[in-house]
Amino acid sequence: MSRVAALYPNDTVTLREVGLRDGLQLVKTWPSTAAKRDWITREYDAGVRRFEVGSFLPAARFPQFADVGALIEQIDGLEGASSAALALNERGASDALETPLDEIVCVVSATEEHSQANARRSRADAVELIRTVVRLRDESANRPIVNAGIAMAFGCSIAGAVDPAEVLRLAEACLEAGADIVGIADTVGYAGPKQVGDLSAAMAKLCGGRAFIVHLHDTRGMGIANASAALDAGARVLDGSLGGLGGCPFAPGATGNVVFEDLVYLCETKGMRTGIDIERLTAVREILQSEMPGEHLYGSLVRAGPPPNLAWRP
Amino acid sequence: MSRVAALYPNDTVTLREVGLRDGLQLVKTWPSTAAKRDWITREYDAGVRRFEVGSFLPAARFPQFADVGALIEQIDGLEGASSAALALNERGASDALETPLDEIVCVVSATEEHSQANARRSRADAVELIRTVVRLRDESANRPIVNAGIAMAFGCSIAGAVDPAEVLRLAEACLEAGADIVGIADTVGYAGPKQVGDLSAAMAKLCGGRAFIVHLHDTRGMGIANASAALDAGARVLDGSLGGLGGCPFAPGATGNVVFEDLVYLCETKGMRTGIDIERLTAVREILQSEMPGEHLYGSLVRAGPPPNLAWRP
């Protein structure tokens, strides 16, 4: 079995916890390294296996990710767990390849406008960067999988509407450049379930038997409905963050990623086993509450818990 | 066209605002009659047409509904608008029939246990009450439609799991007793989207070309995903309450009804026109904020508003 199929089989649901990366991208305070380790350990004990833990960015500008290497080392020691981290340029990728990382995440914007504003490069250059990262990866000892995430895939805060055909074209270009897996991201929470279902179905077709990732934000309350539509359309890998951490710089007042706990509950009610114990998972919110007291935590399941008097898993 | 088909056509989506009834059922403070009138007027101006405005219950025990008749009179004067109100016994139905009410709502529990605990009658007696209400209605001058809502249709806080076949049997019994329309209610927010989609599809089949109502609570964050699944399965009439008002006595800490504003947005993103102006609608929350300052208002769309730079209605 290929390494990507081992990490992301397409016949069962896999949830990626991106709180340690996307959730900390914009915050002013963040957990200590010890608290982050505890976050990982306790989520691992709850059954979480796929962790996105940071970005390979200059620590002077992004001090919240200065400990990314230490977290990757930690996860390397956890049986069955895998680590992912962002690399936004060749330098970041080289740094990443010196760690025992399992998955290196690159980003391509769905629109030329966002690509230039966010990464100061064209979309074509972003695809070329993936090709370079794949080459560097192939020359490295560790050989993590390469994940190409398409940002603004459902609408762009700068360019507005995004043609799904353009997203599919970019997804194909990323795969052609050697990416092992592609993701579609609703970066600013513009999508509704019909749009997510339609693009997920097209991605499932494009990717054949391979898995793809759906990364959702709950900016307008559609997060769980969008996740449900993605699953119905054949998506099997979804991102979320504990407590819905992760605001967006382009949408003031907006919430962050779709809430991981609620996502687990959604999958389980659909009869899709996540391997995650919801009560142990929600208890990990304590770490965020004590380490990031200024951050509002989201999530609905935590208020009432699963139905107490029936077998709610079909 | 029958009166029920005029109120609830099955070829377009209709949203019922139940905040003035379900939203006020358990609160300790409630808006003045003047503020309730303002709530109705402003929602009407935003495009809302179906209002559930209270219950015909003894005013001594339920003072929040003492003005139900005045609100029904108000709505009677609004072109194209209709009023619904609960009647839980023959006395309530008789009182209701003395007003220009458009829709009288009766409740049947999906489980014998909840029926006895909540209404002190068997389910069979609840169905017989519908037959009586239909007869009283047929003898009345006003002739509102009769709506039979099946509470606990997706799981019961007392009895636990509920067999969907039992819900369908009850729905059929209500129609046989003369109900013009039947609803399925997730009273304690137990349902997930698969369950809601499956039962909605079965209800669509049972009801043939007639509409049926889906009444959801957002207790565990599945409200909008459940609504989306109901719509996908053919449901065309959904309940919601402004700001998600409406806690549940059986689920401490739980939120109330699915948020009306988010429900409007969901429908519109699916290309289903509601006729409701979202910005004017969300502005009506001001009334709840000033009249019920102790109540937590829910809703996600209100934080960010619809996507600002694209045509998000397909």
Q: Describe the oligomeric state of these chains in a short phrase.
A: homodimer
- Count of DSSP E strands of chain A? 8
Major interchain interface with per-chain residue totals: A-B, 47 and 48 residues
Low-confidence stretches of chain A: none
Give the N-to-C terminal Cα separation of chain A.
30 Å
Percentage beta strand of chain A: 5-15%
Give me the CATH superfamily of chain A.
Answer: Aldolase class I
What fold name goes in the CATH topology slot of chain A?
A: TIM Barrel
Indicate the CATH class of chain A. Answer: Alpha Beta
- How do the strands of the widest beta sheet of chain A line up side by side? 1-2-3-4-5-6-7-8
Measured on Cα atoms, how large is the radius of gyration of chain A? 18 Å
Q: Report the biggest beta sheet of chain A as strand number plus sense, adding barrel if it closes.
A: 8 strands, parallel, barrel
Label the CATH architecture of chain A: Alpha-Beta Barrel
> How many domains, in number, for the residues of chain A?
1
Write the H/E string of chain A, N to C: HEHEHEHEHHEHEHEHEHHHH
Give the fraction of residues assigned to helices of chain A: 25-40%
What count of helical segments of chain A does DSSP give?
Answer: 13
- pLDDT average of chain A, as an integer? 95
Structural class of chain A: alpha/beta
